[in-house]
Amino acid sequence: MKELVAILIPIACGCVLPIMIVWLNIRKKINETNQRTQIVLAAIEKNPDMDIEELMKKISPKKKLLKEKLLAKLQWGCFTTLLGLGFTIVGLCLDYRGGMEPEDLEMCYLVGGILSAIGIAFLISYYVGKRMLAKEMEAEEQLLVMQAENK
3-34: b or e for each residue (b if 16 or more CB lie within 10 Å)? Predict the structure, then answer.
């Protein structure tokens, strides 16, 4: 029985969990789109002379700015790097004190290393993106200022 559980847990975490996450995200987006469609149809039924483009702009979700996307990468990079370092430090402390199974220590080091690597990748992505998208972010900010002045 233990062998079966030892096989099923990695399969569940590696295959079923990512598929479920993708499916839930897709289902959420489909539901949001259906709700917006129902709102537009109801508005058209009540007032056929309505400007549909303006209504769609009001009810559609706001797109994230480049700066917001980069800051999210910075936030996740810092979070996962610190979490990875925490796992590694806990592993080192437990290894120094002794009394823990070597497999558990290896798992602690492995999780710490993986999380640190993912965090460093996010941080690199942030800094590279910041350099490459500097002009686009300035243009986006100027566009927002112009839109704010027009209103």
Answer: eeeeeeeeeeeeeeeeeeeeeeeeeeeeeeee
Cβ burial of 77 (10 Å; 0-12, 13-18, 19+) is buried
Note the pLDDT of residue 151.
64
User: What does the angle CA 5 – CA 115 – CA 65 come to, to the nearest 5 degrees?
Assistant: 120
**Token digits of residue 50:** 């309505």
Of the listed ranges 105-109, 111-115, 136-140, the least confidently predicted one is 136-140
Q: Is the pTM of this model over 0.70?
A: no
Q: Cα–Cα distance between 13 and 90 in angstroms, integer? A: 24
First-to-last C-alpha distance (Å) of the chain: 67
Give me the pLDDT at residue 41, please: 85
